[in-house]
Design a protein that fits this description.
Chain B is an alpha+beta fold and 306 residues long. In chain B, 53% of the residues are buried. Chain B has helices at residues 2-24, 28-32, 60-68, 121-125, 151-155, 179-183, 189-193, 204-217, 259-269, 274-294; strands at 46-51, 95-101, 106-112, 131-133, 139-141, 162-163, 172-173, 199-203, 237-240. Strand 2 (95-101) of chain B pairs parallel with strand 10 of chain C, so a sheet runs across the interface.
Chain lengths: 401, 306, 388
């Protein structure tokens, strides 16, 4: 193993303008969360009995965890498809995922009416409703969040081992081998859980079937959610890699990211084929061109996926980092739009209900994401997460073939 | 490496295939579980029959409901002058709404409350069974098991469960067929006070027989259909009306129980939780194999390599 | 009221002079006119004035209308109601207002004398008198079931109606048969409208009819010369245009769903809605809820805790069983019923703006950043702009 590709702290000042802005937005969110806690859901959100799930579920949980599927996607690539050359991307991807899932979990606590009873979900197993898709999602997300932080723990333990405090250092040095020994089994769990709950996030809406617009109302929702979460995970990794290279002074891992882009194509293709075939089988192709909001949104959503595929279609296009990042962004938006469409647009409680998130909901979501970004920056500066300054030629070669 | 990749693809394909096959297979497995009953087995369950042509819109049932369930009346439409909620909500478990079409002169009241489905979507959604079918097949609520996720609201095709948005310790509010009164040997409050017996209480079988008798006796009076006999797999609250049911806010939601479809998918994928265990074993196996075969590709979890 | 504005007119033939001779004070008369305004608040030219004194002025100037009152198959309840005023002197006042030239119950004459009075009245006021009919007329077997001095009711009505300017059928019997006509109607009893088609007939159904409605109608005819506007059942709209239910003092209890369920129960003692007890108020057109009987407040069926039995409705009283409920017509306050679909939930403009701004910033920032990552790395260790 080349020392240059080993993860190392980025270093540099912790307090930068970006971090300050990020945490200022997060602080605003904390204040609003306090208000939410004091005034209740009705006063602070625009959710209602027609749209009981709003922005916090549609974005923070459903879209946020999909964006946090980078860890899942890279792990799938590295550990199952045995593409070891992507190994340097594992830690940053896991960090993004860990942060993303934690935010999702936190948002759920905000969104729940009776969050103080949440402890009953994992512990009151005799009350578990085997029928409940949401129970499965909840348990999986709780479990996966812990798995992700466990997967991240070597980075923090390595940081601690190098710290000046002797006690902390001794503890970290003792814990590291144990953590590493058990890592394979935890990592396998880290692959199983997202497969289950990302598909089940789609299955959630199967229960709303009678009230779901036919363009999205398919029993294949779980499969479509699973496939799109994988491409979104890839997209997140690409965007994050591109931005780190630009703004955190890392060597651009263009070749590796280009390889990711290539790996995305078959998944993307599979998604599009299944989505269109499903529409065709259910006789809903015509509805795409009904010139209503639903048809238009479906077309936009599909076009974004196709556009991403086109942006990634040739080796030449994939080697341009800017283009690669645009493709990834388009994918993220496509996946996010798909999720919003299913959870907020396709879901039709009746012609008389409407919902648009309140200012508080939006600001809390923005603040949580900003906090996530700030934390990410602080973490990569302080702990060995990003790969070393120079990407090795071997890595470049490996990615290019 | 190529072998392991093929294996991994097989695992993925297997998962996808299982989902796809589940999606197209008939929901027969749901019935096989035994826990979920069909409409034909729910004859002895408690229910109500509401005949919209007999309703005079006096709202006695709304008043009685609020009294029986300790709900503060909602006076939304009358600036709090008298009970006049807009819809079922956190203070209203039962409402009389009106449908009127001035162009063709059709007019009907409609009473809305929980339909007490034979195989409900809400109980299927509920994580810990806060909403569950309990005695007499009544769908009841246990706040101690509710985390307030509102998935029941997302699931119910009739838009019945409502949430106490205004409260800090909110609960789900929905008609529980006055199960506390039934336990005391009384009838549900709304059926007891109805001056025209537009809503009556009984077992599902009795009510179905009564409804069909009325349809046969006065065919000109009704839309020839008992709403709830088959809808959503059958409900224990049944409707007769002179106006098409969808105009009364009672949707045509298919004859299958709402949870059937999700059960078909989930049961196939997670049959007895065997699939996740098998998948976990496969994933771990592939990873072990990759690590052993590894060498030049540095495969296996990074932490194991150092 | 401006009593001082009102003086009795000097015309000796006028109603005013008659009242003066009878010792009716101006105040008594104006008060009476006010009551008329209450019973016929709108839709009547006579009482459609701003002030009771104005009404009094108009009435006092007019000549007393000649009234011929015939009885057929009746219980005399309508007449009794007219006489059973609880304020002393009011019945006389009422009788002073009209020239009641023939009335079998009230006149002193009998036998031939009475018959002569009738003939005289009809002759003297031919073409001008108002014929009031009380009671139904039997038609079966050529009307032999009702005879006065050997003549059938059919004959008497035909003769009396010939010279009448207008006919007022008082009570449900005269209006359409009433009790005598209820099944099996052994005498084939009918009301005036079934027999007289060439004269205007005003039906004042009720069992009994409220005497104020009769007075308002007759005085309107005497003073203004027209009959009040009628509905399709010949009932004056001023008194019969709305159903009891619309103006029932117990309506709030109906709206609140508070019903009497047995006579003497808690709800009955508290004055709750009598709908469940078979009250026909929701379909009965009458003014009972605004003009009670015998000058006594709350002296009317619902006021004393008895369900309305629909006496002013041809198809209800004596036909629909007493304790059967009826289906309300005219559901009046639609605003208090939620429509099946009501718009709920709204989007604040600020939130839409903010949401748009956030999405726009993400898109724009992402695109800008993507164009930057193509360039040389900013390898200075300090971030220059935020992550996407």
């Amino acid at each position: 193993m080349n020392s240059a590709s080993r993860p190392a702290p980025v270093g540099g000042p912790i307090v930068t303008p970006t971090v300050v802005v990020a945490f200022a937005l997060a602080a605003l969110a904390v204040a609003l969360i306090a208000w939410r806690a004091a005034a209740g859901l009705g006063a602070t959100t625009a959710m209602n009995d027609g749209y009981p799930w709003g922005l916090w579920i549609a974005f923070d949980v459903v879209t946020g965890t999909a964006l946090g599927c980078g860890g899942f996607a890279i792990a799938l690539l590295v550990y199952i498809l045995n593409q070891g050359r992507y190994h340097p991307m594992i830690r940053p991807a896991f960090l993004t995922s860990a942060l993303g899932y934690s935010i999702a979990g936190f948002s759920v606590l905000l969104d729940l009416g009776r969050p103080w009873l949440t402890y009953k979900i994992p512990f009151f197993f005799w009350n578990w409703n085997g029928d409940s898709v949401l129970l499965e999602v909840a348990l999986c997300i709780m479990g996966y969040s812990m798995v992700l932080w466990y997967e991240m723990s070597p980075a923090f333990l390595e940081g601690a081992a190098a710290s000046s405090s002797p006690g902390l250092s001794r503890f970290a040095k003792k814990a590291l081998p144990i953590v590493k020994k058990s890592m394979l089994w935890v990592t396998a769990l880290g692959l199983l859980l997202p497969t289950m709950h990302q598909s089940s996030l789609g299955a959630l809406l199967l229960l709303s079937g009678p009230r779901l617009h036919p363009l999205w109302n398919t029993p294949l929702l779980p499969l479509l959610f699973l496939l799109s979460c994988i491409v979104m995970g890839f997209g997140a990794v690409v965007v994050e890699g591109a931005l780190s290279s630009r703004f955190l002074g890392r060597q651009a891992e263009t070749a590796m990211l280009a390889g990711l882009g290539k790996a995305m194509l078959p998944v993307l293709g599979l998604y599009l084929v299944i989505r269109l075939a499903d529409l065709a089988v259910r006789g809903q192709i015509g509805a795409l061109f009904a010139f209503d909001l639903y048809g238009a949104m479906s077309v936009v959503e599909l076009s974004l996926f196709v556009a991403a595929a086109l942006l990634l279609s040739t080796d030449e296009r994939r080697r341009d980092l800017g283009n690669l990042m645009r493709a990834a962004l388009v994918l993220l938006f496509a996946g996010a739009l798909y999720r919003f469409d299913v959870f907020l647009l396709a879901f039709q409680p009746g012609p008389h209900w409407s919902y648009f998130p309140s200012v508080t909901e939006i600001l809390i979501t923005v603040g949580l994401v900003a906090g996530e970004i700030g934390t990410y920056i602080v973490c990569v500066r302080a702990f060995p997460i990003l790969a070393g300054h120079a990407a090795t030629t071997r890595d470049l070669r490996g990615a290019a073939h | 490496m190529s072998i392991s990749r093929r294996m991994a693809l097989k695992v993925l394909a297997g998962t996808a295939g299982a989902m796809a096959s589940a999606a197209i297979s008939p929901p027969s497995c749901a019935a096989a579980r035994g826990k979920h009953i069909k409409a034909s087995e729910a004859g002895a369950n408690a229910g109500m029959l509401y005949d919209a042509t007999r309703c005079i819109g006096c709202k006695a049932c709304m008043v009685a409901c609020n009294e029986a369930n300790d709900l503060v009346p909602d006076g939304h439409l009358s600036e709090d002058r008298w009970q006049s909620p807009l819809d079922l909500n956190e203070r209203t478990k039962n409402i009389i709404k009106v449908y009127r079409n001035d162009t063709d002169g059709t007019f009907s009241f409609v009473k809305r409350q929980c339909m007490h489905c034979v195989d409900p979507a809400c109980t299927s959604a509920c994580m810990l069974g806060a909403l569950a079918k309990r005695e007499h097949g009544i769908v009841t609520y246990d706040a101690a098991l509710c985390v307030g996720c509102r998935y029941c609201e997302m699931a119910c095709p009739f838009g019945v469960p409502k949430f106490e948005w205004s409260k800090l310790a909110p609960k789900i509010v929905k008609c529980e067929l006055c199960n506390h009164r039934i336990a005391e040997g009384k009838d549900p409050a709304c059926t007891e006070v109805c001056p025209t017996h537009a809503v009556i209480y009984g077992t599902r079988d009795e009510l179905l027989a009564e409804a069909h008798q009325r349809l046969e006796g006065q065919p000109e009076r009704y839309v020839p259909h008992v709403y709830g006999e088959h809808e959503a797999g059958g409900t224990q609250v049944l409707y007769l009306a002179s106006v098409e049911f969808d105009k009364l806010g009672l949707p045509a939601c298919g004859d299958n129980a709402v949870p059937d479809r999700v059960r078909a998918v989930q049961d196939t994928v997670y049959q007895g939780f065997v699939t996740p265990f098998v998948l976990y074993g496969l994933l771990a196996g592939v990873m072990l194999r990759n690590r052993k075969a590894g060498g030049d590709d540095d495969s296996g979890p990074e932490e194991e390599r150092s | 009221m401006a009593i001082d504005d009102f003086e009795y007119p000097t015309d000796p033939q006028s109603i005013g002079q008659k009242l003066l001779r009878s010792g009716v004070t101006r105040r008594q008369f104006v008060e009476f006119c006010l009551k008329l305004m209450v019973v016929a608040p709108a839709g009547l030219a006579l009482t459609g004035k701003a002030d009771a004194a104005d009404v009094a002025k108009a009435i006092a100037k007019a000549r007393r209308p000649s009234v011929v009152w015939l009885h057929f198959q009746d219980c005399t309840g309508c007449t009794e109601t007219l006489l059973r005023t609880s304020t002393p002197g009011l019945d006389e006042l009422i009788l002073d207002l009209i020239s009641l030239d023939y009335h079998e119950t009230l006149m002193a004459a009998a036998g031939d004398q009475a018959e002569e009075a009738l003939q005289a009245a009809m002759k003297e006021n031919a073409g001008k008198y108002v014929l009031v009919v009380e009671g139904s007329i039997p038609r079966k077997d050529n009307g032999v079931y009702l005879k006065i001095r050997g003549r059938t009711g059919l004959d008497i009505l035909a003769e009396a109606s010939k010279g009448a300017a207008a006919i007022v059928a008082i009570g449900s019997c005269a209006s359409w048969g009433g009790v005598p006509s209820s099944g099996p109607n052994p005498t084939d009893a009918v009301g005036v409208t079934a027999l007289v088609t060439d004269k205007p007939v005003v039906n004042l159904p009720g069992c009994p009819a409220n005497p104020y409605i009769l007075l308002a109608t007759v005085l309107q005819y005497a003073v203004v010369g027209t009959l009040p506007a009628l509905d399709e059942l010949h009932r004056p709209l001023f008194a019969y245009d709305r159903v009891i239910h619309e103006h029932c003092p117990r309506r709030a209890h109906f709206d609140a769903g508070e019903f009497v369920r047995a006579f003497g129960d808690k709800g009955h003692r508290k004055g709750w809605c009598l709908y469940v007890m078979g009250c026909k108020g929701p379909v009965t057109h009458a003014s009972c809820s605004t003009r009670h009987f015998n000058e006594v407040v709350d002296c009317w069926p619902i006021g004393i805790g008895a369900p309305c039995y629909g006496c002013t409705e041809k198809e209800v009283a004596f036909r629909v069983p007493m304790f059967d409920t009826v289906k309300p017509q005219h559901i009046v306050p639609p605003a208090t019923y939620a429509p099946v679909f009501t718009p709920q939930g709204d989007a604040s403009k600020i939130a839409i703006g903010l949401g748009g701004a956030v999405v726009g910033a993400l898109l724009g920032g992402g695109l800008v950043a993507s164009s930057k990552v193509g360039g040389p790395p900013a390898d200075d260790g300090a971030p220059k702009s935020g992550k996407e």
